[in-house]
């Protein structure tokens, strides 16, 4: 098969440069064009010297990327991708948005949480939101745009799915305490990501007010078949990569010791990228860094009949670039793990 | 007044050396003797070179410490302090145990969670468990032993107290997601505190099974007047000092926006060491490092009628040595903040 | 004695807030006024929540600070302090510049390295550059302005002084490899101090081209009595505080094993803030953090007849705010360590 | 071609598990057997959960590894590999020692620095020390054992080679100030690698007394054709991976601005794994992490006629496992970069 010509809009953002890192090892891909508003005209290796002599492509503009590519990854602030996806669509190109513009099925959610409208409603009919392990059936004839899931929602949806589908959870009980490394905040300079401010520091932020909340609730509601509200509190971890979501749910029934483990093991037994850890093990984000894995450990608190689900991903890979490539593989009917056999290092 | 002759058993542990740091600035204290099993005969500055030329005391044994001191701080693994407290008591000395041997009022809790018995039941009648802001009335005539609270329970009890006393909380709803720096694990070498294993890593541990659980529940039950069970999950943070507890409670009533803030503000208005942050602020452990403060921020999740309480302390100060000194001040009728006016640095 | 009314211009910079932290514990000081261009009208605790309920002063402007204070600390970018010092001088106030405007004795050095002129040459006659351990005699009648030394030069001058005075060093051989924590770069946001860029990263910067070079050479030349050129390479360490300078000098004579140690021990025997470590020990910046100490260890490389001097300070204390307060104590004939008895914590 | 059957002795050490990570992606290798004294009988994923479901091999003993493999990597403390290499040799297997037993050509160096003898002198005739970029010609007929270079010496030899061969260096002037991440100290628990002791800490260690010194001098002497002595001071960096060596040499001649850059560029122009950075750039270890690259930047200090060479590698890859695989490729006449196209991530 000919190689897929792939382009990246927003290539100098953290998700963009991670896409490059992974795509350079993808056997069916040719990196055709990359763009950056801030660094147009420079080579990517001038901005990211780790790529010196490995990728010396020049950063162009968005139109060039759309022109030269069969499939475009876009990693931009919300509100900017709808117009680009339309341009791509008009030229018959596929489009994967790593931002928020194609994630929420209900426009009112988008308006409430992002303060923006959908301008191209028809276009949304060609798009789907897709965590492959849960939604791969959505990527079928007629779908040319994918709303790539957010980092927190990915870790949470994969952590909750088997229990929510089982019907064993009190749907009013879901509390999610997530912790993310600083790359999650991106390349832009802010006081909170200034080294002396976040090193040896730790706190929550946007408590019960983070924009990923409606995306989390959308998937939880679909899985459970009911309207679900959750409490979601993200925290900023003093490390580069990775997310741990510690998820608390109350069961509406009594279960045997390892029943929840077996439920998850069966649910994910064919999924390469979800590793359900054995009873007694605990998920740690260090074990999935630089890889597309999601590690899940299950813990029953018998005293309160709660289950604690610990779900770990690399926010830059399964939470962004890796999952986007997994979605690209789906769009092109390639094995989902093509180019994604990234072994997480021990440290 | 004559200076109090103070001794430290277990002076080379992390809590021990933190006691030395703070006591060196206490105007009413003379450091009379220190001991260490591992380093007997060495000077403390040989073990902790930060103290070079500042404190050159020689480490002795436990008996010497008891002999030379009016008040003894002991920071040892659980099970070792009862016998030492007895010795001290027989000589009319006061005793503050930074470990777990005098924390739990019900012996069955101690047996269940620590697997040990109380050997000197009478002695426990002379002791009390004391977070000064909540229990200072307990330190009265006849009390010569104090069970100094654990680090997690301190952050949690101060975070929960006003709401639990208010009666507005669904007592079955309490979930506590705590995160602690690595000094909490002490000076002993373990794989989990080996630098390459915990740097750029993050995970929970002892999920819903940590020994601080009964201590947390003891205080919560006292405050609410009912038997309370909580779900408590500690996590290990890749930083040296500090604890954040993110506490989730469901209200059993509707409240105005800042009602919970005013409740806390009033509850703690005379407390120097508890800072209730203004609405809109969020507690961060960096702001209390190296100090005896507990910072608390309150966050109402209207969508689910939950309150999220964020409570931050320095695990080594308010969570150990600082609070122990605050308790010493209580025992000697000194102003509680004597020697504890430690300004937290900005970074 | 009445308390000295002290003001801080540039109070929201990192050196400024560190001055506040230390001055709050100084028995002879009243903090009279603070200013900030960026945050005028806010309280300092709004900018630095670590100071909540401890210091709630409102940030004013520079003129207010000069008006209300007997002594002004200024921590501003170079080029801004001469004019302020003049204003202060005209009102009979004392002035300590934590920046570079009063450090270099030769104006041509200032012009070459900073690209600026001295506008008030007369004013410089009332000023001196002062590392107290080396230059305290300079602070005499007629001196009302002090050029507070830079962080790197302080660690290096204290490390080199005894050997340079001894005449045993080949003056062409001096190589200084320094490493500083990120607070050294200040509060301003830059790509190089963005957390994901400097965490798990390390490199030199301004190789053999750092502006502290002429200040280092000025002191080295004074000490040796000859014109000295050095090679100076600073590096950025992924930690908050502290500087290590590893200094290489070739001896022009053969020495006994511990001769250099004895030389240093004698040179600094009356200096509280310089700790010459015993043979076999190695200076580590963690042992001086949050304190005004400079730790020095000496290492003889017999194979090459070089001495390696390792000098560690806290860049924010002995390298900035602490030394500035030490200089203030000199100006007011107070014991030099007044308010500076800061015990470095073990971790 | 058939896959090479490869075994690893000491597979649970840090270099061992890094070998596994890289070899899993090597197209010509079949991982045949792994061993560990401490964890025999366990699977590697029990010890390193990052490998869960990726590599579930059971750890055996050394004899099994030698038996089942064509080529054996051994990563063990010095003194243990000679006997194993002999066993392997007697069975006609190839052997790559990641330790020190086959690095030093002169037995007296080994005796002086390691306190051990060569027991199998004949065996050393079948071995060579090999940094491929400098010594690949040594791997010829009759060579079946390779002494894989140390991490510091690799960064230093590659940094010094062009200048030393050029004859432009005063050979008495070489000073090397190296800084390594904590993985360099290995998996064994020590006080210096206990998280709270090395986080927010920095210091040199084994000042001018590190065992890599004779290995550095051996290569420097070969390159320059004269007996060279260097001053070498390693430091411990608070990060996981990477080495920076800042190397100071005095030139014995005057040179044009970029002459040294051109010298290096030409010297390494055909070397994939050495990237000579453009003038104005500075090597940073973050840009080579997780990859086999060595980045070198050159800086001329005209004021002192010194060159400062900054050389950065990942201590676990180019400094251990990656270079060992590069040497394996040499032994099997494979392209040197086979299996080593590891793109360094941006963060």
Question: Could you characterize the architecture of this molecule?
Answer:
The structure is a homotetramer of 347-residue chains. By secondary structure, the first copy, chain A, is α/β, with parallel strands linked by helices. Chain A has two domains: 4-149 and 318-331, NAD(P)-binding Rossmann-like Domain (Rossmann fold); 152-315, Dihydrodipicolinate Reductase, domain 2 (2-Layer Sandwich). Chain A is built from twelve helices and 14 strands. The radius of gyration of chain A is 20 Å and the shape is globular. Chains in contact: A-B, A-C, A-D, B-C, B-D, C-D. The interface between A and B is large, with 45 and 45 residues.
């Amino acid at each position: 098969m000919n190689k897929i010509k792939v382009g990246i809009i927003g290539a100098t953002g953290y998700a963009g440069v991670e896409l490059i890192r992974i795509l350079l090892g993808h056997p069916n891909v040719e990196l055709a064009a990359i763009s950056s508003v801030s660094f147009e005209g420079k080579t990517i290796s001038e901005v990211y010297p780790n790529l010196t002599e490995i990728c010396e492509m020049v950063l162009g503009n968005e139109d060039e990327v759309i022109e030269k590519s069969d499939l475009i990854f876009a990693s931009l602030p919300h509100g900017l991708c709808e117009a680009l996806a339309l341009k791509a669509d008009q030229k018959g190109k596929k489009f994967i948005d790593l931002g928020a513009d194609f994630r929420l099925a209900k426009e009112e959610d988008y308006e409430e949480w992002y303060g923006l409208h959908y301008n191209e409603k028809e276009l949304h009919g060609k798009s789907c939101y897709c965590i492959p392990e849960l939604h791969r059936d959505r990527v079928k004839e007629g779908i040319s745009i994918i709303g790539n899931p957010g980092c927190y929602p990915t870790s949470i949806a994969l952590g909750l799915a088997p229990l929510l589908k089982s019907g064993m959870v009190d749907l009013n009980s879901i509390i999610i305490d997530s912790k993310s490394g600083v790359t999650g905040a991106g390349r832009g300079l802010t006081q909170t990501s200034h080294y002396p401010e976040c090193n040896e520091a730790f706190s929550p932020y946007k408590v019960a007010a983070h924009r990923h909340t409606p995306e989390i609730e959308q998937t939880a509601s679909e899985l459970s078949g009911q309207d679900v509200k959750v409490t979601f509190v993200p925290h900023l971890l003093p490390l580069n990569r990775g997310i741990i979501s510690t998820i608390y749910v109350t069961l509406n029934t009594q279960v045997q010791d390892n029943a929840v483990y077996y439920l998850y093991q069966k649910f994910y037994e064919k999924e390469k990228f979800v590793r359900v850890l054995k009873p007694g093990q605990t998920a740690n984000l260090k074990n999935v860094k630089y890889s597309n894995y999601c590690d899940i450990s299950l813990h029953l608190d018998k005293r309160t009949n709660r289950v604690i689900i610990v779900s770990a991903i690399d926010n830059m890979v399964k939470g962004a670039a890796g999952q986007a490539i997994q979605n690209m593989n789906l769009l092109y009917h390639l094995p989902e793990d093509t180019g994604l056999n990234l072994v997480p290092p021990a440290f």
